[in-house]
Amino acid sequence: MATLQADQILDLIKTTQRELGELKFTELASDLTEHVAMEQLLRKNRATFDSGTGIQFNLMVGHSDAAKEVGLFEVDSLDIQDHMILGNIPWRHTNVNYAIERREIAMNREPRRLVELIKIRRSDAMASLAELMEKRFWGKPGSSADQKQAYGLSYWIVYNPNASTPGFEGGNPAGFSQGAANIDSDAYPRWRNWSAKHTAGEGALDTLVDNWREAAVKTAFKPIPGVTDTPYGTGTSYGYYTNYDVLGKLEKRLNNQNDNLGNDLAPKDGKVIFRGVPVTYVPYLDKSESEPVFGINWGKFRPVFLSGEFMREMGPEVAPSQHTVYVTHVDTTMNYLCYDRRRQFVLASGSDATLGL
After folding, report:
1. Which residues pair with 49 in a beta bridge?
2. pTM, rounded to two decimals
3. How far apart are CA 36 and CA 133, in angstroms?
4. Given this model, what pLDDT does residue 21 score?
5. Strands 293-297 and 238-242: what pairing?
């Protein structure tokens, strides 16, 4: 085997990063059958890119009630009020890296073997990143004291197990007394998501569907005629997400409604649709025993990335204090942002506000 110099090693690693074909191996790296959050992150049409030291947005939380009936020659009455407030959240950062040792190259008698080694190291790094993103997307930091974890779905879409009736009862996330994005939902009740509690078990499926139907209708806000909606929004694009406890019951209900099964024992499996939208199974939500259903309006909820810092790869370069090691880093600076919480909802059966996530 010909001797490789340092610059050739770096070129080989860089080339391998770009050419990801031909590698074949069986991936058993995760217990999750699908990583829904990472898939959403990689859809750039659902992402926003921004700059600055944090993420800010504006909310119009009321109006002045200035409209009134008037008579002829009546004196005008002006009532100018400020109904705009500012929401803000910080950036959060993730890093994953992979490395190769110079002497590993000498142990590979064919350059092709080296290429496969680099690909495996990179695949390992990406699997680790996908697993972390899945956990962070569906969960939330324990409190405002956490300076690292991203503000995941459960930070914005709050489940309230103590509400006696379905409604806009999802208030401030636990551990954040100042409210989501530093907006107190007690002071601004329109800054709340819909939350409803249903009874667990197959026999309570009708209650779940009734709550689901009501939530979908009452969170479908449309812009007031003549009022320009915030440029943050991109319309209405709902997605419904749940675990197997719920999906399995829904599929069974559909199959029972089918009078002619034919040779297929489960013809409706994988075909559950609610109000024209496919219901998505989220393996990570199997962690919850509360039978959760999330309704996400992707027109108002999205990841925001710092411009130039989306899955940014740096390297390979010599690792500090390890002169024979070449390391590549993949960095992302982002956070999740909900522009309108009242267009989101969560349904669940448990008494734990965190849903065990």
Report:
1. 305
2. 0.83
3. 9
4. 46
5. antiparallel
